């Protein structure tokens, strides 16, 4: 489990300090402010591997390069077995292009899973990827981690020296389904929990073929319209969900088998890093995904503590965390561009924000999480700004106000709450009169839309 991260002169922030909570950690922030980068660093801190270094097909997860090799540092605190905390500080060696620190066997943070935004996935399993003793020395000569490109998730992961590391979703799902044992039951259960609605659960259908030239038995999903759809033809949203379901089941199954082989207990900690958790998902799904993932991961690793670190751009994801959020267990962090002194360019800052229940998605859009001035279209926002300015202008005329009203009618819906403010402000300025109570609303709000 990851407890702290402290970065100096590495990534978009000059200084970044993150104190993670034990269960759900939400990270928001504009594009390019370093959410994915932070997850890459978190993955590295726990596994000491950079995803891209282990799989050249990835388009992210490169070794972090500090702003200056002399000043850059990454420091972190990991909690491992028996709640023991270990602090580690690493600096960058420009010559070796690598991060170095105290030598030797790193601390065991538990099972670490990382779902990347583009569908790549990485697994570090303490039973399969940890160091071993050879001739009394700690050495890392196991598979360093399982890093899947989006394609590897479906077709399998090979290692040039070690051979087949994972069969991939298509082959494993078909194999598990034919066997009809525990892995298939688990997969069905995980798919059902991740389904966005109970009335239409994701349910495997019969295996099928999709071409004369393709000898693979392809898994299918039942659909509400009665036809089973091959998973290769499923929508991107469904494919993202089934890939997550498969990788969770695969990672846990393999961990359990490996623990049996080495005669050790299964891990007490699972850390799940998820970038752009909403990627490809319909709003209905975005509303359910955080809670569902927390539930399935906890259900698989029943005796372990599960920590989630989630980056998101979705107000629905934030709103959906409201019923579950507990300040003793969870936290929300926000990356922002903060203007400094006039002489300095703006700086990227990470702040932990108090999580308030805002109740609806529009409020999340205009909150510090997403910093929008209003949840409307950009055009409406500009006109509303003009309207607010006009109200404050001493010599604004009724005609100007009427012209602006016409423009507003072209972009604002009839029930937009701004109309009542505009009506009232205009009446106070004497631009028009408000109707008597009980009378039909007349100009300007209810005027017929005029087309030009
Ligand atoms: N390997 C790297 N080394 C150093 N900085 C990096 C690296 N990868 C990403 N970054 C930093 O992160 C920024 C991109 O942020 P990113 O995490 O993709 O943003 P977000 O996910 O919030 O949209 C880049 O502008 C750069 O400053
Ligand atoms: Mg990103």
TrEMBL record:
<dbReference type="InterPro" id="IPR003959">
    <property type="entry name" value="ATPase_AAA_core"/>
</dbReference>
<protein>
    <submittedName>
        <fullName>AAA family ATPase</fullName>
    </submittedName>
</protein>
<dbReference type="Pfam" id="PF13304">
    <property type="entry name" value="AAA_21"/>
</dbReference>
<feature type="region of interest" description="Disordered">
    <location>
        <begin position="433"/>
        <end position="452"/>
    </location>
</feature>
<dbReference type="InterPro" id="IPR027417">
    <property type="entry name" value="P-loop_NTPase"/>
</dbReference>
<dbReference type="GO" id="GO:0005524">
    <property type="term" value="F:ATP binding"/>
</dbReference>
<dbReference type="GO" id="GO:0016887">
    <property type="term" value="F:ATP hydrolysis activity"/>
</dbReference>
<dbReference type="InterPro" id="IPR051396">
    <property type="entry name" value="Bact_Antivir_Def_Nuclease"/>
</dbReference>
<feature type="domain" description="ATPase AAA-type core">
    <location>
        <begin position="24"/>
        <end position="319"/>
    </location>
</feature>
């Amino acid at each position: 489990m990851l407890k702290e991260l402290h970065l100096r002169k590495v990534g978009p922030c000059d200084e970044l300090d993150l104190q993670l909570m034990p269960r759900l950690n939400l990270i928001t922030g504009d594009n390019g402010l370093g959410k994915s980068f932070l997850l890459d660093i978190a993955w590295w801190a726990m596994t000491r591997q950079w995803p891209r270094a282990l799989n050249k097909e990835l388009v992210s997860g490169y070794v972090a390069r500090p702003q200056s090799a002399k000043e850059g540092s990454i420091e972190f605190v990991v909690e491992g077995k028996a709640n023991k905390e270990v602090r580690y500080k690493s600096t960058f060696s420009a010559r070796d292009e690598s991060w170095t620190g105290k030598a030797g066997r790193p601390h065991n943070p538990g099972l670490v899973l990382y779902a990347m935004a583009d569908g790549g996935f990485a697994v570090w399993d303490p039973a399969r990827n940890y160091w071993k003793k050879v001739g009394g020395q700690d050495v890392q000569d196991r598979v360093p981690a399982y890093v899947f490109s989006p394609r590897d998730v479906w077709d399998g992961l090979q290692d040039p020296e070690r051979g087949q590391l994972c069969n991939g979703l298509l082959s494993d799902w078909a194999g598990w389904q034919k066997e009809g044992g525990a892995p298939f039951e688990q997969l069905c259960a995980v798919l059902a929990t991740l389904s966005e609605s109970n009335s239409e659960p994701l349910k495997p259908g019969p295996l099928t073929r999709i071409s004369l030239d393709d000898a693979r038995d392809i898994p299918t999903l039942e659909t509400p319209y009665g036809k089973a759809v091959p998973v290769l033809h499923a929508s991107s949203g469904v494919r993202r969900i089934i890939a997550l379901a498969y990788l969770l089941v695969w990672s846990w199954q393999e961990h359990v088998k490996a623990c049996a082989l080495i005669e050790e207990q299964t891990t007490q900690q699972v850390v799940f890093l998820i970038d752009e958790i909403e990627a490809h998902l319909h709003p209905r799904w975005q509303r359910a995904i955080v809670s569902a993932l927390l539930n399935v991961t906890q259900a698989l690793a029943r005796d372990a503590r599960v920590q989630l670190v989630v980056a998101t751009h979705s107000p629905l994801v934030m709103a959906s965390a409201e019923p579950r959020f507990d300040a003793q267990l969870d936290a929300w962090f926000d990356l922002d561009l903060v203007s400094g002194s006039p002489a300095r360019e703006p700086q990227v800052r990470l702040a932990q924000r108090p999580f308030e229940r805002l109740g609806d998605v529009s409020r999340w859009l205009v909150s510090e999480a997403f910093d929008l001035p209003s949840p409307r279209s950009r055009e409406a926002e500009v006109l509303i700004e003009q309207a607010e300015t006009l109200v404050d202008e001493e010599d604004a005329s009724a005609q100007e106000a009427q012209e602006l009203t016409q423009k507003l009618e072209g972009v604002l819906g009839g029930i937009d709450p701004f109309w009542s403010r505009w009506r009232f402000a205009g009446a106070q300025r004497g631009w028009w009169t408000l109707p008597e109570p009980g009378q039909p609303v007349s100009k300007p709000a209810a005027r017929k839309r005029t087309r030009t």
